[in-house]
Amino acid sequence: MNAIQDLLTLMFFPGGLFVLALGMSYEWIDRKLMARVQNRVGPRWFQPYADIAKLLVKEEVIPADSNRLLFIALPILALAGALTAALYVPLAGFDPLYSFKGDLIVTLYLLSLLTVCTGLAGANTTDRFSLVGATRTLTQLFSYEAPFLLAMLGPAVAARSWQINEIIADADGQWLLIVQPVGFVVALIGLLGKLEIAPFNAPEAETEIVAGALTEYSGRGLALFRLGRHVELVVGLTMVAAFYMGGVNGLPLFILKTLLLLLILVGIQSLVARLRIDQTVGLWWRWGVLLVLAQWLALVIWEGVQA
Amino acid sequence: MDTQEALKSAETLLTDYPSTRPEENRLDVTLAPENLSAVVSNLVAARWGYLIAITGLDQVALGQLEILYHFGAGAAVLTLRIPLPRIPIPSVESICPIIPYANVYERELGEMFGVEFRNSPNTDRLFLPDDWCSDVYPLRKDAVLNEE
Amino acid sequence: MDTTVPQRFVVPIGPQHPALKEPGHFEFTVDGEQVTGASVRLGYAHRGIEKATEGRNWVQNLYLLERICGICSHVHATAYCLGVEKLAGVTAPPRAQAIRLLVAELERIHSHLLWLGVAAHEAGFDTLFMYSWRDRETVMDILEALTGNRVNYSANLLGGVKFDLTPELTDQIYAGLELLEERTHQYVDVVTSDATLLQRTRGVGVTTREQAEELGLVGPTARASGVERDIRAEAPYAAYSDFPVKVVTATAGDLEARFVVRLQELFEAYRLIRAVLEKLPPGDLQARMPRKIKPAETISRVEAPRGELFYFIKSNGTDQPERIKVRTPTLCNLASVCVLAIGSQLADVPMILAGVDPCFSCNDRMVTVYSGDTDHTQWTWKQLRQYGIDYYRR
Q1: Which tops the pLDDT comparison, C348 or C375?
Q2: Whose CA, among A150, A305, C129, C266, lies 20 to 30 Å from A74?
């Protein structure tokens, strides 16, 4: 009985299909808002579903000189990572499905899995655009990952726990973004970097390197990578909202807070040009890391004084 | 600079060669191929205008292929005309050492009319496909292009 | 890996590439993100137009040459008409000349707005791209109302123009200009103050005045480097002597300067169009042209949106030209891309490329693309399909 329930939870609700559906809906909202800001009509609500369905039925062309196993396995791994990460966050306002001491660290690394897989997928195909894209993807990973991690760990330090639901419980509905504004901003902008959207879309800058690391992907592989990214959008938004905006108790609050964050992301996306990869790295290491570290220092001292 | 003044100064630079004035803003000077480099160097040294284009003219009746170097300064246009025999492949000194950007014009002319530019830094094909046969020069009047 | 020979890592841009809306082929050798070498190959849009002109009569050629380019079709027709009129000793009436100028400036507006969108897209600034193309529709609508076409306006005839201005059209142009002028002010503001865009444009692809002269740059690209080269002012054609142009230049020579120069030229275009509408000379629209033209040769130069357009036309006494040579501005400017790209970041290359506003259709004109080989195998559709299947089965 229990096994069946677990299976249902994992496959359909609130894991599995539900997360995928949620991810695609958020993707649609992102695209629609973006289009409206840019004075376009934008896609209809089912467009992301149609895109994925179309890609899934299309032929997948595997480049002759790449490792077949890796080529097929990487997108699966990427999506699996993102879906697993979804199990540890308070998705749609429910309590996290699974929880243990230190799940925050696991979740953050599961989220990075997508980027690592993308980079490896690019390096696996010998296409030149893919190789440049892979280099850029991994370079970008190393630039935003540290500040993003530090920003997500800020609330954990305040709560003295590495467990996601304990951190949220500790905040007790308080909006941490007021006491840790730097962490909030860095986490939000780090999310832009993670999802490779403007201004951090140099790894897939179409006018330079076509589609970056995923240039050679078509059909199923591309669909899985895109699904992974949609899921990551939702998971990322959930985490930022839960940590910095006083938790997400219940569906209405979840939708309200994550959509607010999405709106901010769309605003940033539509107002900026693409940064060069060297500018991205410079921005993160010159400003992001320093600011977050300064806030950490303040936090640790404050905690020390209290104790 | 006034157009007529510009043409006058060009005329003084090129007094040694036969010249005509086909239109009021134009000066045509006919040169032997061996004088080309020296004349172009003179023009560049005197900062007279800039190279606009290089035109090829295939004159089957006269048995010659003329290369026209057009220089412009304001409204004034100076044309250096180099008549060459059509057959065998005519050859002329490249002016790229003096005017580097002339290279694209020379490459175009070379492949279209079959003119050899000596000492050119780059004689690769510019417009024609890679598998174009080497002895057909499409803009020559007698080029045979098999219509499909 | 062989350590004695340095590995060359070549990133191809083109012939099919999202950065280029038309086919051209560039190969950039990169070391990490740094570009260390560049080469260019053209000819993917060859249609053999120069050769084709020799087999058509003067009137047919007008329509052929107008189709060299889909963006600056009017300047090609104007250059050709002015040249042929000069050969025939005919002058188009003043009203026709003024209308030619009017359409040329409208075309410049459309071309520069198009460029603004493309350049913004290359920089990853899609919002600016969408907005500038939306506003470009205004001028496209005006052109359509004037001439009936959005692309190949076909406004010129040998010896004059095809249509006249009506009061309604004049009103529509005034209204459109008002909107565009307001929008252009905003674009100038964006390109000179938006921090992320400036990071991609300020100090990028700098061409000094000396370099610009050495590379033989023309048009707005040259003017952004402080070279005052504008055929409209230097050798006024059509009605430009009655409606003089103020040449817009900048000194910085970087991509930002190219943005600014093109946008400032828009204001100049608005001013010129208003001036023409106010003082449109009365009279006929067309002068009579002879069918055959005595042997002679002439040179016709006009300022296209991208720079100086050069026509060399030779007649031979029949109703067909002996030779028509077209030198388009892109050919002059394109060579500079290879020079400027070396030493810059790979990410800046599309920007530098877009900075000269390349137009490949203009560039690739001359020769029919099929090969002269007689043993050239022709593939049937079936063979081609089989090849595709076998290829992917490997």
Answers
A1: C348
A2: A150
